[in-house]
Specification:
The chain is mainly beta and about 475 residues long. About 5% of the residues lie in helices and about 50% in strands. It has a domain at about 120-310.
């Protein structure tokens, strides 16, 4: 009876808290309000304050307090060029907007649209757009070959190409960078695995067939001879400008014109090094994986790497995040959080007076401030420790945690709508009874005028403060 009474009291005070604050109103936009589709894939707010919303059926732009659907443009040949599914939106340094789609690239110079198509590479999909220091636009193209009977073969083929647009024409670096690679079924479908523009404006690109660098004049290629493996997964520049590369069988550091290889330590050999992290104390950390799962966390100590397994980390599951608070390094998995103290890892349950055994969603809101959830609680982790901000009367699944410019915390969930906290106090719960079309929250963002927007499964919503 005591448990039941506590639940009733929790629900009672939860209702009292919400009724003490006026519920904010929402303006909801769907396909019926002019959107090309109610299913929003992602959004982007550009430097001019225009909100771009991508869908499977074109683009939408919000300006002058209304949405305009952009499904096609008229090409120079007089034919309509349809956007189709939007893959990415990129704004160049001169504020030009570049849209990657499954039907090519659309370019908007703030006056008119241009469509670029490439019939020779129509079976390739655009995976990345970026700009170099000379204002050239770079494009990564990826293709996963549909081999017959791949289940019997046991692998599939990936291809990659790189193109560059200098303002007048497109150049494909045929034979210089790119190629093909065989990967096991179920591996990530990307031939190009990472890129970096370093402090000297040199472009570095890792792929499943080697590492490439471009200094603005010429290409350099590095392969198994220098790096232990042709399969490269991450290129990284530390705070002191050292270049490190993670491969399928080791780690390499650039030292002048040569490379120093680290490949025999436990946790390195035979594992994929897929990410690095440089903390504020100058320490370099690396993540290794095996069979698409976390294997170990590695720490570079002067001349060698030290390995931490799940047992050392005091965590179960895939370690997926690393962050810092008050010069202490934390890591998290779906089963908890650990902190690095005095050269060993400690579970936060043994450091703070908490009982965290699940982490459903974690977000570093700003430097030194992290919010995370388990199946029923919202926690704050800061230099002052861990505190429970809110306990939900039931079970929730957080999809998004966002802090707006007023320092308010918004928590979007899978089926319970959106929760708004001011000064870590719950003030509103938006759901299908208060204006949302459904209770599944995909994302939350803020526009240039500090308006908060909520993306649901079937609508986009503006919060009217």
């Amino acid at each position: 009876m005591r448990f039941a009474t506590n639940k009733i009291l929790t629900l009672f005070f939860y209702c009292i808290i919400l009724s003490a604050f006026p519920q904010k109103e929402l303006t909801t936009f769907t396909k019926n309000d002019g959107l090309s589709s109610s299913n929003i894939l992602f959004t982007y707010v550009d430097s001019k304050g225009i909100i771009w919303a991508a869908t499977n059926f074109g683009l939408n732009a919000y300006f002058s307090n209304k949405w305009t659907a952009i499904k096609y443009i008229e090409g120079q040949d007089g034919q309509n060029k349809y956007f189709g599914k939007i893959l990415s939106i990129f704004e160049a340094s001169n504020s030009d907007i570049w849209i990657a789609t499954q039907r090519g690239i659309f370019y908007y110079n703030r006056k008119y649209w241009t469509h670029f198509s490439d019939n020779e590479n129509s079976n390739f999909e655009i995976s990345k757009l970026f700009e170099d220091s000379n204002m050239n636009i770079w494009v990564f193209l990826e293709n996963q070959n549909g081999l017959k009977d791949v289940g019997q073969i046991g692998f599939t083929m990936l291809e990659g190409k790189v193109q560059i647009f200098g303002g007048n024409q497109w150049i494909t670096f045929t034979g210089v960078i790119g190629g093909s690679a065989a990967v096991p079924i179920g591996s990530p479908p990307n031939y190009f695995t990472s890129m970096l523009i370093d402090s000297k404006n040199t472009i570095w690109i890792t792929s499943l067939d080697g590492l490439y660098s471009y200094d603005g004049r010429r290409w350099s290629e590095f392969n198994e001879e220098q790096l232990s493996s042709d399969k490269c997964y991450k290129v990284f520049e530390t705070n002191n400008h050292d270049i490190w590369v993670g491969t399928a069988n080791g780690i390499a550091k650039k030292e002048g014109e040569k490379w120093k290889k680290y490949e025999k330590a436990k946790g390195i050999s035979g594992n994929i090094i897929h990410d690095f992290y440089n903390d504020k104390q100058g320490r370099l950390w690396a993540f290794s994986s095996k069979d698409n799962s976390f294997n170990s966390l590695l720490l570079f100590n002067k001349s060698k790497w030290k390995t931490f397994t799940n047992k050392d980390l005091r965590l179960k599951g895939n370690v997926d995040k690393i962050f810092e608070i008050n010069n202490q390094v934390f890591i998290s998995s779906s089963r908890g959080i650990s902190v690095y103290q005095n050269s060993i890892w400690k579970n936060i349950n043994n450091v703070y007076d908490v009982n965290v055994d699940e982490v459903y969603f974690l977000q570093e809101i700003q430097e030194g401030l992290v919010y995370f959830t388990d199946k029923s609680k919202l926690y704050q982790l800061s230099k002052d420790g861990v505190q429970i901000v809110f306990e939900y009367d039931g079970k929730w699944q957080a999809n998004e945690i966002f802090m707006d410019s007023q320092q308010r915390i918004w928590v979007g969930t899978d089926r319970d709508g959106l929760f708004l906290f001011e000064n870590d106090k719950l003030v509103s719960n938006f759901n299908d009874k208060s204006g949302l079309t459904d209770n599944h929250i995909n994302s939350i963002f803020e526009d240039s005028e500090a308006n908060v927007w909520i993306i649901c499964r079937n609508s986009i919503n503006k919060v009217n403060d």
